[in-house]
Design goal:
It is built from five helices and ten strands, in the order E-E-H-H-H-E-E-E-E-E-E-H-E-E-H. With 262 residues, it is an alpha/beta fold. It has one domain: f41 fragment of flagellin, N-terminal domain, CATH 1.20.1330.10. The strands form four sheets. The chain has a four-stranded mixed β-sheet with strand order 2-1-6-7. It has a two-stranded antiparallel ribbon with strand order 3-4. It is elongated and about 75 Å long.
């Protein structure tokens, strides 16, 4: 997954990525992993290497259904941690955008001297570098952010006798306002375009949308986690539950896709 700018921060050069680039990843066995198409669907998309193909419980007193639901619980918790880590990074980005906005406001003041504007450019560059460092953050070796449309991280959960794929979106930083900030400057003859207030407003608007998306992802995962917990309780109280089968026809896809093609 390619992220905006470069580590030495010639940030006027923004790396472009094609739509939906990156490796497809799933949460399986409590870890975020790349899909291994050679493995059976259950191991590929749910258990990982944690359990055998038949979902045999390592604890003889535990049914394979309970063992599988515990694995799904671990997968959902890993997805929630991914989103929580993303939220922390987004909060830090919001702080850096505020520093950038303040630098721009002060640099545009008619009373600011050349020396003051030069100092504000240094402050701006530090905030921009910190923004870049957050943009390359990862969780469990998986990028939290992308530069343009990217493939989501998928959590497979059983619902209504089928497997459903929940899509955890990587926050897309390749949007016009954020790109302008990463290419911009507030003073000096160095590379980059001079920022204006419209660019900052756009960046803040895009950032708020990413924060909203993050909370929606969090709510979706927590809701399903509660559902799996209730299912485990029903099994403990004697209710029967059958592990859903994955489709035999690979053309139909292994997961029901309620809200995007995952």
């Amino acid at each position: 997954m390619k992220i905006i700018a470069t580590p030495n921060h010639t940030s006027s050069d923004v790396v472009k990525s094609n739509p939906l680039k990156g490796f497809p990843r799933v949460v399986a066995g409590g870890r975020i992993i790349r899909i291994d198409s050679k493995k059976p669907y259950l191991e590929r998309m749910v258990t990982g290497d944690e359990l055998n193909h038949g979902v045999k419980s390592p604890n003889p007193s535990k049914s394979k259904e309970i063992a599988l639901l515990e694995t799904i619980t671990a997968n959902l918790n890993a997805g929630i941690k991914f989103v929580d880590t993303q939220e922390i990074s987004l909060a830090k980005m919001g702080g850096k955008l505020s520093e950038i906005a303040l630098s721009l406001n002060k640099a545009k003041s008619p009373t600011a001297t050349v020396q003051e504007r030069s100092k504000l450019q240094i402050i701006f560059e530090k905030a921009k570098n910190a923004l870049f460092q957050e943009s390359i953050s990862t969780f469990d070796h998986s990028a939290l952010f992308s530069d343009g449309p990217s493939k989501p991280v998928i959590v497979a959960v059983p619902t209504g006798g089928e497997w459903e794929g929940l899509s955890i979106e990587r926050a897309d930083l390749g949007q016009p306002g954020i790109r302008s900030v990463m290419k911009g400057k507030v003073h000096g003859d160095g590379p980059g375009l001079y920022l204006d207030h419209n660019s900052i407003r756009s960046a803040f608007s895009e950032w708020r949308s990413l924060c909203t998306q993050n909370r929606l992802n969090w709510g979706m995962l927590v809701d399903r986690l509660h559902g799996i917990s209730r299912m485990r309780q029903r099994i403990h109280h004697g209710d029967n539950w059958k592990i859903p089968e994955f489709p035999a026809d690979p053309q139909s896809g292994p997961l029901r896709r309620p809200h995007r093609n995952n």
